[in-house]
Amino acid sequence: MKKMDQEVIWSEVLDEDFRSIPKGLAESFSDKTLLVTGATGLVGSLLLKYLLYVRETGGLNVELVAVARNREKARSIFGGFYGDIEWVFADLASDEIDYPGPVDFIVHGAAVTTSKTMVERPVGVIDLSIRGTRAMLELAREKGAMLLYLSSMEVYGTMPDGGRTAERSLGYIDLSNVRSCYPESKRLCENLCVAYGAEFRVDARVARLAQTFGAGVLPGENRAVVAFSRAASRGECVCLKTKGLSDANYVYASDAVSALLTILLRGKEGEAYNVANEACHMTIAEMAQLAIDTVGTPDAKLVFDVDESNASGFAADAKLFLSSEKLRALGWGPRVDLPTAMTRLVAYLEESAHE
């Protein structure tokens, strides 16, 4: 990543992605302060990087505050731009957040996202979700800020087959499955947002993100679509630990960033919005094969290594086709399809490996 006296700020691929986001979205944040939690996660870091990009290239006057736990990880992710952000280091599962400055917008994305942790430390997952969201809602209440809560498509649980799923539809979540700590706590956090709106007039909105990936993924990122694309591009086996029958819904990273900005600027108080590219819907197995067909070398192949005894470590098989009609009605539209997303992801990974 490089400063503005050179042509490239983050990377050629990521800069191209950022140029594709309508500038008018970011310009609406001029002279405002935006606070982001989960700032060292994929979505939080990309939102901050995009606003830094617009600030450097377009002179956007926006103040950025980031909440994270790990100072060294933050330095590694933001490099030369680390000092251009005001940092608050805290563990939202336990620490009090006392930020003295003004805040106009809060994007709350701090959450556990690894299935292994959900199974091994479910209480910690719930603590971070509930306590962290309550703390950010209290901060929004204190500052008179708008809050956007980053939820997940997993809140839908297991849906009946057939049709596209809009925001008012919810399915079944097995409360006896320990991994349900994640989707069930996400559901409660969404309702907390509604409760704070009803009781304290906090303007809170919800973005239910599909699986998000693309240029800007962090080192060590191992979510399925990234791992499969990486393996295929290296000519390795693409290994599925399940039968891959679950439906998968995706959205490219820069499309997700533009969606969040759209919800902040044009969404309605108390409403939830699916963030998904409806053209990027297929089963996990189909996605794995697409990775091989799109970015794989001749040696890449698909392998199934299913351990039925470890099924609790994965999300339950689900048939879910997210509808983005409500978000598209706000003027948002995805720009990157799945084959292009995989190609750009691999290009970014290769570019990053040579830095």
UniProtKB/TrEMBL annotation:
Pfam families the UniProt entry points to: Epimerase (PF01370)
Cofactor: NAD(+)
Domain NAD-dependent epimerase/dehydratase: 35-276
Superkingdom assignment: Bacteria
UniProt KW keywords: Decarboxylase, Lyase, NAD
Entry-linked InterPro entries: Epimerase_deHydtase (IPR001509), NAD(P)-bd_dom_sf (IPR036291), UXS-like (IPR044516)
PANTHER family, sorted: UDP-GLUCURONIC ACID DECARBOXYLASE 1, UDP-GLUCURONIC ACID DECARBOXYLASE-RELATED
Protein name, UniProt field: NAD-dependent epimerase/dehydratase family protein
